[in-house]
Write a structure and sequence with these properties.
Elements: H1 3-16, E1 42-43, E2 51-52, E3 64-65, E4 73-74, H2 101-112, H3 127-140, H4 150-157, H5 173-184, H6 200-212, H7 223-229, H8 246-257, H9 271-283, H10 294-301, E5 309-310, H11 317-328, H12 343-355, E6 364-365, H13 366-372, H14 387-400, E7 408-410, E8 419-421, H15 422-432, H16 451-461, E9 481-483, E10 493-496, E11 499-505, E12 508-513, E13 518-523, H17 526-530, E14 532-537
Antiparallel strand pairs: 1-2, 3-4, 5-6, 7-8, 9-14, 10-11, 10-14, 11-12, 12-13
Length: 540
């Protein structure tokens, strides 16, 4: 093959802007090995008309092993002329650190089979991908090295590839996750049983879960059981809605003392008790499920239990009643008594607390509500009418950005130049500061995160106290304003199937991505749109 032909082919590749992804083409090759002579051409398969050419080196090419169904092989690519920016051929063994388009196919398959959290597939083979491969290898009876070689690839891509299932004898972080949820649902009774080992005790707990929830009783956490664990439909093996007992009465008394429940403790676990428990769990960083589970009872019994307090992001009739009292005393305009606890309401509460000698935390807790409802609260002091003094103060605030500065700020790069409230901007800045931090399942910061741990940490750093909830829990957090995909604004929490992130404005999102292996700032792409479930407005 002459040099002019090689140059022409190179130009064709550049002109078309094609990145040469050889491994994706393997799946279309036959099992037959091909050889290239000195002047022989091989066409890239899968409908592409890209032509690979070899230089005349006088030597016969040698076939090399490559990933593919049935252990197909590619011919030698020595001397192949390609664009300098084209993607390198994927290595035979995919392992941590590899960046190649075939990883995207791998991740998509792992997610499809339930071994990896739902996320937008990427080309990066990180720790989360390696861990998912280990779970598949464990399920398939292979050595658990987390490396995708020929045998692992073929097994994974097979039509008969097994879906995720955890059973007796298995060990791993995924087992710890399952055990923790079984514990909170009352199927495991002691925290010491959370050990990462799927033992006989865990199997018995799973069988009980399946029995109570009318699933096939096999003691294995397969697709149906795994999907149920964090769903709203799961039935607990603990004190829950409909129960009547002295234990219920005991904790009703405690909820009343903390300001979460009104009326008398009657021992009947009704809707009011369930709602009070949900509010308590949210305030005290528990899984918000409305059950009197072990962790919830421990916190309720402790001196560190946080009392009731309406706060930023909540929406209810109680909020509206509180807002009407703030209107009465001049801290809030009448048109803002909407039932949504936004930033203006928070500022009004802060002003009320300062004027009335209360702890200024911006939350409408028991003491604040008591003073508000007393009839003797102090009204908001009237502002000075001194024009020169006002002008001077306004200038200082605008120049210095102090406590009274306008609550508008530019969102970080990628926002499309929009402006959002100061609190939303703060949230996005906090989230942006963690871009590049590693993804680690179950981590809640400050140096590593999973998707829900990242949202939890960022919100609390921004002053929005909230409980740690999984992506499933974020489908119905019970306190924020629900918005649709077309209504998104910077600072909203976006929930997609199996994943959660922070909308950063300008068609972008910041999230802890398992497929990327780290916190990323990326486009709110078609994948997010296709898997969109709901979003929650934190700041108005």
């Amino acid at each position: 093959m002459n040099k002019n032909r090689l140059i022409m082919n190179k130009k064709r590749l550049i002109k078309r802007g094609i990145s040469l992804v050889l491994l994706s083409s393997i799946l279309g090759l036959s099992a037959c090995e091909k050889k290239l002579g000195a002047e022989q051409e091989a066409a890239a398969v899968s409908g592409s008309d890209i032509v690979l050419t070899t230089e005349d080196n006088g030597e016969e090419s040698v076939a090399i092993a490559a990933l593919g169904l049935n252990a197909n092989v590619l011919p030698s690519i020595e001397g192949v002329t390609i664009d300098g920016q084209a993607e390198e051929l994927a290595p035979v063994n995919l392992t941590v650190g590899v960046i190649n388009s075939v990883v995207k196919d791998l991740q998509q398959r792992l997610m499809q089979l339930g071994y990896m959290e739902d996320d937008e597939p990427t080309t990066y083979y990180g720790d989360a991908t390696s861990k998912a491969v280990q779970y598949f290898q464990r399920q398939s009876g292979m050595p658990m090295d987390g490396i995708t070689g020929v045998s692992t690839w073929d097994a994974l891509m097979s039509e008969n590839a097994p879906h995720y299932a955890a059973k007796l004898g298995f060990q791993g972080d995924d087992i710890t996750k399952i055990q923790y949820r079984l514990y909170n649902l009352g199927y495991l009774t002691e925290s010491g049983q959370i050990n990462g080992n799927f033992d006989a005790t865990t199997e018995t707990a799973v069988k009980k879960l399946q029995e109570v929830n009318h699933l096939t009783i096999d003691g294995t956490v397969g697709t149906a059981t795994n999907d149920l664990l964090y769903s709203d439909e799961v039935k607990a093996n603990i004190i829950a809605l409909g129960e009547q007992s002295e234990i219920v009465k005991k904790y009703q008394t405690r909820l009343i003392a903390l300001g979460y429940l009104s009326g008398d403790a009657d021992g009947n676990f009704g809707l009011s008790t369930q709602n009070a428990l949900r509010a308590f769990q949210s305030r005290n960083d528990q899984v918000v499920d409305g059950y009197l589970g072990p962790d919830t009872r421990v916190i309720l019994d402790s001196d560190s239990a946080k009392p009731f307090g309406m706060r930023l992001g909540e929406q209810s009739g109680d909020v509206q009643n509180m807002q009407k009292l703030l209107v009465k005393y001049g801290y809030l305009s009448n048109d803002k008594a909407s039932g949504y606890f936004g930033e203006l309401t928070k500022e009004a509460v802060l002003s009320f607390q300062r004027t009335n000698g209360l702890t200024a935390d911006g939350m409408a807790g028991a003491k604040t509500l008591q003073v508000l409802q007393s009839g003797s609260a102090k009204s908001k002091p009237k502002q000075s009418t001194n024009r020169h003094r006002n002008n001077g103060n306004a200038g200082a605030a605008n120049a210095g950005g102090g406590a009274n500065a306008p609550a508008q700020a530019n969102i970080p790069s990628g926002s499309g130049g929009a402006t959002v409230s100061g609190s939303a901007s703060s949230l996005i800045s906090i989230a942006s500061s963690k871009i590049g931090s590693p993804y680690v399942w179950g981590s809640k910061g400050p140096n590593a995160f999973d998707c829900s741990g990242f949202v939890y940490w960022c919100l609390n750093q921004a002053g929005v106290g909230t409980s740690y909830m999984t992506s499933s829990g974020w489908r119905n957090p019970g306190r924020f304003k629900k918005v649709g995909a077309s209504e998104l604004q910077a600072g909203d929490i976006v929930v997609v199937s199996g994943h959660v992130g922070i909308y950063a404005g300008g068609g972008t999102v910041i999230d802890a991505s398992s497929s990327n292996g780290r916190v990323v700032h990326r486009s709110f792409s078609g994948w997010w749109s296709r898997n969109f479930i709901t979003a929650w407005r934190i700041f108005s």
